[in-house]
Design brief:
- The complex is a heterodimer of chains A (440) and B (297).
- Chain A is α+β, with helices and mostly antiparallel strands.
- Chain A contains 19 helices and ten strands.
- In chain A, the strands form three sheets. Chain A has a five-stranded mixed sheet with strand order 2-1-3-10-4, with helices on both faces. A three-stranded antiparallel sheet of chain A has the order 8-5-9. A two-stranded antiparallel sheet of chain A has the order 6-7.
- In chain A, a hairpin with a 2-residue loop joins strand 6 and strand 7.
- The longest helix of chain A has 19 residues.
- Chain A is globular.
- With 297 residues, chain B is mainly α.
- Chain B has one domain: MetI-like fold (Orthogonal Bundle), CATH 1.10.3720.
- Helices cover 73% and strands 3% of the residues of chain B.
- Chain B has twelve helices and two strands.
- Chain B has a two-stranded antiparallel ribbon with strand order 1-2.
- In chain B, helix 4 crosses helix 7 and helix 9 packs antiparallel against helix 12.
- The relative contact order of chain B is 0.12.
- Chains A and B meet through helix 1, helix 4, helix 5, helix 12 and helix 18 of A and strand 1, helix 5, helix 10 and helix 11 of B.
- Chain A: This is Sugar ABC transporter substrate-binding protein.
- Chain A: InterPro entries: Bact_solute-bd_prot1, SBP.
- Chain A: Keywords: Cell membrane, Lipoprotein, Membrane, Palmitate, Signal.
- Chain A: Pfam families: SBP_bac_1.
- Chain A: It comes from Nonomuraea glycinis.
């Protein structure tokens, strides 16, 4: 099909230009190599392919390869994001998936539903205690099985321009209501600047904000799925942002676009409710503002609360079709729990580790936030209050409906909660069509 | 003739044809067959849909086709593409014809330079061209916005902005096809016309364009097919604006179904519907034009 090829080209081109983390790169095809080795009589070292987009993962794998001559891993660098998930599902369907794959938490249920990842219950029994309950739930979906080993997490925080807040006499907002007030005040003081922007292209960010408000889009009860994307917390979040956009208090430029970069660099955008990985993005997309940003907990819905949500974060899953499941699981465990590996993950891949003891061991703040020495302590506090939810088996449909629905709402000036309702209906319709059992 | 040579003669054409047939089967017939096969199937999930065996493929006959035909969003996509296509076809082919005629007329200077500079955009890949224009359209980066206060990525302008990218990229190729045909016309025709007192304009309208008719038809058919398959421009521009949905054009819907929402089966059915419509349109156009232009049946 023509679309396939174009899509691949496009994906590469888009990631290269609208750089999300600065890691769009071509990839060598992998997987077939490992599948060719016979499971019965392995000769020489076991060879495994690992699809990931975390920066410098090849360096970390090199350390493993040196220590484990019998299990040799080859890193195949991916573009990341939704495209990487689609690619893995396609490869699994075509019968030549990689042995190990980086799986974002929201995509893991789709992988499980497609029977593309293996159950690692036995292999991970010993490391369960290394992770918080919330994170662990994301790789079990609340079932008995374990489908991946958590790698990093993305608790959300509020990033803001300290220098400009001081200049305009703004207080760091403690509640969302204060955030709205600050947005209006700023518009009066500097009509060219905005306090923030609502992105109709980033369902992940919206999901995190909905989680903070207490949303529970999917859950499993017994043998059926409960779906409620348009629940009260989600509608509250949607209407809050919809109101601010409508009155012109905040902007509607999507994140990670050239326009957004420019606004960040020019100091025309003063806050970004983002996740713990934001320093990496800011340092590459807004290099001029180094040292001017600071971090605070997300504004709360009720004063005195201490909640957050997750934007991003991923796990390492083992392909259901790999002939070397034990070896692959051994690596997935090592990279996410071994002190040496965790140290490398933090230093080389600049991720916020999911393993509890590694979170506590984080020392110096990221270079871009050198002005905020307590960066990791802040992160740990926020992380403790972050709540997530079980993702459903068709997040792709929901996220696509988010983009189309909010694009339309912004364009036509219609209500954001209608867009949320459309997300819910698209999600339910798709699950019904596939035959999932839904609790009414 | 001996019996052996009798047996050999009918074999030779097949031997010679073999590579072509093998390639045709491997890279055209089989993929099409597989697409048809996929289009008649669907995944059926039971219960939670988790774990092995919870998901199986079932045969559903023409259900996916029926769903594709009944999908309002797909038809809305066709309408959008129709508007976009009409714009691109008329402007692009009009410009291509105009440039070809101008370059062919004796008085033009720097014809070689103009020819190459008009053709050059065709050598720029669609994705690169769309990105470049996308940056030019973006409000805070656009130099165009300094002169013209229009939101080039707004709901009312997006079709024109996209058509502009296609016209910019496609005019050169079509001009070259037409121009090459023009150069092949014997010069004595023009001489004869001039002796009869025809002006350059009259020569262009009464002599050149009628002779060009087959080439114009060819470029039109190519352009119709390219328009129906429009994908690169809207997909590349989509992150820049909130006016392009994931199903803006029919092919975008195929891509979304297959790779975003994970429904290969619907995507296969939709792509077959698109191929059928595309065939009907191109051959329909050819038929109408042939009847008119050449009086053939």
């Amino acid at each position: 099909m023509r679309a396939t090829r174009l899509g691949a080209v496009l994906a590469a081109a888009l990631t290269a230009t609208l750089t999300i983390g600065g890691c769009g790169s071509s990839e060598p095809t992998g997987g077939s190599e490992a599948a060719a080795t016979s499971p019965a009589a392995p000769q020489g070292p076991v060879k495994l392919t690992y699809w990931t987009w975390a920066p410098n993962m090849d360096k970390i794998v090199a350390v493993w390869n040196k220590d484990h001559p019998d299990i040799q891993i080859t890193v195949s660098k991916q573009a990341g994001g939704d495209d990487a998930a689609a690619k893995f599902l396609t490869a699994a369907k075509a019968g030549n998936p990689p042995d190990l794959v980086q799986a974002e938490y929201q995509h893991l249920p789709s992988f499980i539903a497609a029977d593309a990842v293996a159950d690692l219950k036995a292999e991970t029994a010993a490391i369960k205690g290394e992770f918080g309950e919330g994170i662990w739930g994301l790789v079990t979906l609340g079932t008995e099985a374990v489908y991946a080993v958590p790698q990093d997490s993305g608790p959300m925080m509020l990033f803001y321009r300290q220098d400009l807040f001081d200049k305009h006499g703004l207080q760091v907002p403690k509640t969302w209501q204060e955030y709205g007030e600050a947005a209006r005040t700023l518009r009066k003081k500097d009509p060219k600047a905005y306090l923030g922007t609502f992105s109709s292209k980033d369902p992940g960010a919206f999901t995190g904000l909905a989680q903070q408000a207490g949303a529970q889009w999917w859950s499993i009860s017994g043998e059926s799925w409960k779906v409620n994307v348009a629940d009260e917390p989600t509608k509250k979040v949607a209407d809050f942002w919809g109101g601010l956009v409508k009155e012109g208090a905040i902007d509607d430029t999507p994140f990670f676009t050239p326009e957004w970069n420019k606004a960040l660099n020019d100091g025309k955008l003063l806050t970004w409710p983002s996740a713990v990985w934001a320093p990496g993005v800011l340092s590459s997309n807004a290099p001029k503002a180094k040292g001017k940003w600071a971090v605070a907990p997300l504004p709360q819905w009720n004063a005195g609360e201490n909640f957050s949500g997750f934007w991003g974060g991923s796990s390492v899953a083992v392909s259901a079709k790999t002939p070397n499941k034990a070896a692959a699981a051994q690596f997935a465990t090592w990279i996410n729990t071994d002190p040496k590996a965790l140290d490398l993950l933090v230093k080389e891949a600049a991720i916020y580790p999911a393993a509890a003891k590694a979170q506590a061991a984080l020392g110096a703040a990221p270079d871009y936030f050198a002005n905020q020495p307590d960066f990791w302590q802040q992160a740990a506090t926020v992380s403790a209050g972050a709540r997530g939810f079980t993702f459903g088996p068709n997040v792709g449909v929901t996220y696509n409906a988010f983009k189309d629905g909010f694009d339309k709402a912004l364009q036509d000036g219609t209500s954001f909660s209608d867009a949320v309702q459309a997300m819910h209906e698209a999600t339910v319709a798709d699950m019904r069509k596939s035959g999932f059992t839904l609790a009414s | 003739m001996t019996p052996t040579s009798k047996r050999r003669t009918p074999l030779a054409p097949y031997v010679i044809l073999t590579p072509a047939i093998v390639l045709f089967v491997l890279f055209l017939a089989l993929p099409i067959g597989y697409t048809v096969y996929l289009a008649m199937r669907r995944t059926q999930v039971s219960g939670l849909g988790l774990g092995a065996g919870a998901r199986r493929e079932v045969f559903v006959g023409f259900d996916n086709f029926a769903a594709a035909l009944a999908d309002g969003e797909l038809w809305a996509g066709w309408l959008r593409v129709l508007g976009y296509g009409a714009l691109v076809l008329v402007v692009m082919l009009g410009l291509a014809l105009l440039f070809a005629l101008l370059l062919d007329s004796a008085r033009v200077r720097l014809s070689r330079f103009s020819r190459i500079s008009i053709f050059l955009p065709y050598a720029v890949p669609g994705v690169a061209a769309s990105l470049m224009w996308g940056f030019l359209y973006l409000p805070s980066l656009s130099p165009i916005r300094a002169i013209l206060d229009v939101d080039l990525l707004g709901a009312s302008t997006i079709t024109y902005s996209m058509a502009n990218v296609a016209v910019w990229g496609g005019t050169g190729f079509n001009m070259l096809v037409l121009y090459t045909t023009l150069r092949a016309i014997p010069r004595d025709y023009y001489e004869a016309a001039r002796l009869d007192g025809a002006s350059e304009l009259q020569i262009a309208l009464r002599v050149k364009i009628p002779i060009l008719a087959p080439a114009i038809i060819l470029t039109t058919v190519f352009s119709i097919i390219a328009t129906i398959q429009v994908f690169t421009e809207p997909t590349t521009l989509r992150p820049f604006t909130n006016t392009i949905s994931s199903t803006w054009s029919p092919l975008m819907k195929v891509y979304r179904d297959a790779f975003v929402t994970g429904d290969l089966y619907s995507a296969a059915a939709t792509s077959i519907v698109i191929a059928a419509i595309s065939l009907v349109l191109s051959f329909g156009f050819l038929r109408v034009v042939r009847d008119r232009a050449f009086g053939e049946g």
